[in-house]
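To assess whether the prediction recovers the assembly geometry, we first specified each molecular entity separately, as shown.
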Amino acid sequence: MIRLYDTAKQEVVPFKLRDEGKVSIYVCGPTVYAPPHIGHGRMVLVFDTFRSYLEWSGLEVNFVSNITDIDDNIIKRADELGVSCEEVTATSEDIWWQAMDLIDVARPDHSPHATDYVDKMVELIQRLIEAEAAYVTSDGVYLSVDKVDGYGLLAHQSLDQLLEGGGDRDIVGTEKEFTADFALWKFPKPGEPSWPAPWGEGRPGWHTECVVMSLDLLGEGFDLHTGGLDLTFPHHENERAQAVALGHQFATHWMHNGFVETDGQKMSKSLGNVQDLVGLATQYDPRAYRLLILQSHYRSPIEISDVSMTNAEAALTRLDAFARRTASSVGQPDPVVLDEFTTIVDNDFDTSGGTDLLFRQVREGNSALDAGEVEAAAVHAANVRELAKAFRLRLVQDQGAPAEMQALAAQRTEARANKDFARADEIRDQLAAAGWVVEDLADGPVLRRK
RNA sequence: GCGCAGAUGCCCGAGCGGCCUAAGGGAGCGGCCUGCAAAGCCGUGAUUCGCGGGUUCAAAUCCCGCUCUGCGCUCCA
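The predicted structure of the complete assembly is given in tokenized form:
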């Protein structure tokens, strides 16, 4: 029985599913106007590993994550670059998927584009107007939040508290009936993209996109709505507000991942410490970020630095070394260990506890091998493979050393057999200079990258 | 100002009333293995969990206050 922390309830509760054996998940995807940063990276990795775990547990997962391809930021970016919005979104989306491939994030079952859903958004807004939950002003259409039952469910603040606010926001939409009302539809300035609508051409507001796409693809009362912690309010609150205003049931559970920090500081554009995801995944083993995320809890803040990434890479080396050492072993995982794993991870997706168990299996497997207990080692090896698979963490056995390096390694083995250690060490230095380390395993040498 | 998180060894990071003299990973140190290494194994490392009070037979874990950090308060993963 999986239990998850629910942002709305503020406690860990059983993960109740609408349909037995099936999970419907909506993850708020990127607005495609800039390359993904490491914060996006954490978000997608958290939910990719979660999805993988659910599937591994035998559940059928319907995983939807949108692409927001119409938004103020896109318009602004297109203006800055002097190109069309389409050009900005096409290029950015391309980079997005490349980055996903690089960090080995599985494609969603559906990745709807906001621009493909404008008709349905117009319909929703029309119904909101008819229900008198929304109204038209000279610059757009707004939702009356005070007509929504339980507004503030996710913010955990009353409307009054929200309004007092301390931020440096501008209060736009001076014709708003109530300060907290938010835009469903924005009338365009000259040159801005727009779609026809009964109350005037324009473009949808961000919050309307996600509510329409999630309900359309997953249906009422879908299981889980997720995203980064900062989307809790206003984005998710406002999505829910629209659904509830029309009497729809929205997501049953809310799950949000914690933030990424560098040097104990928020990553932000103004501080100039925004780190590019592709850059990070290129500079380090792309799997290192996944492992680092698995070793911490998804709701905790994590520190991304050269130290933490290098640390994760070293841990990965250990896992790979074990995979290499047990490459030829054949065995079945121990059901007791798998049970233990499930019990741990089912508890609010405790991946840290799960990786803990994984590493303990590695150590026990290595010990068994050292003691010559081949069968016991094979079980541990199978456990390790299974646990890594649950988190979609790929272990690398063969790093594909080029033929000439392999030949050198073979020569070294020969030299050692002849007790020509000077020659053997010379070859080892040669390999090292070329970036390869030799590991002398039971059935011969294996090369790995330094 | 209001709300929500967090502060744990040299570093990262679990634990959330008794099994904690606090997991796991990394780094260090000592040993075993090895021709020497690499890989691996064993040992070592916080008597202590931001600070100050309190509750309890028992607190890193609960309560109150304080300090610091992050997030939100209508752009944000």
